Amino acid sequence: MKIKLLFLLLLISGTAMAQKADKATIVKQGWNFGALPAITFDSDLGFQYGGLVNLYQYGDGSRYPEYDHSLYLEVSRFTKGSAIYQFQYDSDRLLRGIQTIADLSYLTDQAYHFYGFNGYDAVYLEDWTDDDQADYKTRLFYNYDRKLFRLKLDFQGPLAGTNWKWEAGINLQRFTVGKVNIDKLNKGEKEADKLPDVEGLYQRYCNWGLIGPREADGGTIPALRGGLIYDSRNFRANPESGIWSEAVLEYVPKILGSEDHFTRMGLTHRQYFRLIPRRLVLAYRLSYEATLSGHLPFYYLTKRVVDGAKGNSMEGLGGARTMRGILRNRVIGDDVAFANFELRSRIHNFQYKNNNFFVGLNGFVDTGKVTGKRALNFYPSFAAIDTKNYLDYGAESWHTSYGLGLKAGMNENFIVSCDYGRTTDKRDGDAGLYIKLNYLF
């Protein structure tokens, strides 16, 4: 199980107990930043080391807690090769009145999760990944190797001075995928701890024809997007009231090396209710995505359309950004729907070294399912194979998890989040712990 240590979270939580609460808010001006170490451990990937920095420019402070410019940088690596290199810029002052979001990332994952298509229709056998069980195959049976280069540019602007906005953007992505590199992962391991040379689910899907040869090793996705947004939130990073709704179309043409073309649509609705000012908020998010035309490569099924402007980690369904506690990427198909419900409380507001801090708790319920299933077309030579350990046709239903979260925020924008979620069905795994930045939505 991955263990995450977050020193700043402990520092903020400890300091909070010694400060007086609910003083007048300090208005920030100029530059302000938050920094975190990134320290994790995974038995198959090794230690992660590195850090992230988020800088905010508040100008003369007249718009605080809104910012003029935000710069986010993360550089972190695993000792066995996986890495995150990410830079993001966000501003509505670079082009006056137009929000500009630029993202440049290179992401590698030597054990990217893959459980098959169509949710519960794809059987998950935990014993196959547990080396203490008689049925053990390999700890990384449900994984493959993925590398992603991404260059992204999004714009949002107002429509006639109302809460309505237009959005447009381009997202150039290059995926490189393949089987898990067990030679690299086994390097330096004791013989008893080495991964066996066993075909994983990804390789078997390729052999059977469920993943076609054209998409098996990745490809280029030049995605164009456009849509409408309704935004009446009182504050972007940590709203207490208002609505944020989006309708977006994504089109991928056959250009710049793309081998597939397709069209997708996404709808999302987020709403916030202030129950007690600066103390208690009820929030929910509803999302639906559908493939309108063409064929999505298997490696792109995990990418979300909704929240596309800033949702850099929106993959799955399942995991830190969609359904907490459920296995990452457990629920993928041509069409999906999901929902999140949160009750957010602030238990302490305080000030420290000329900064505004808060500590909060939240309870949540997440749920989702595949609403449009991906067609499974076996090669004729494999049409009669026994699939009872791989497929359970018609089993798909709602996947649900629940849990609690701890939040620690600085100047309303830099928010450290620790969420613990549990599943309601063992077919989705057991539980998950996630330490990241910002609220889920």
UniProtKB/TrEMBL annotation:
Endpoints of the signal sequence: 1-18
Stored InterPro entries: Bac_surfAg_D15 (IPR000184)
Gene3D superfamilies for this protein: membrane protein fhac: a member of the omp85/tpsb transporter family (2.40.160.50)
Keywords (A to Z) from UniProt: Membrane, Signal
Subcellular location: Membrane
Pfam family for this entry, one: Omp85
Bacterial surface antigen (D15) domain span: 128-430
Chief location: membrane
An example Gene Ontology CC term for this record: outer membrane
Protein's name according to its UniProt entry: Surface antigen-like protein
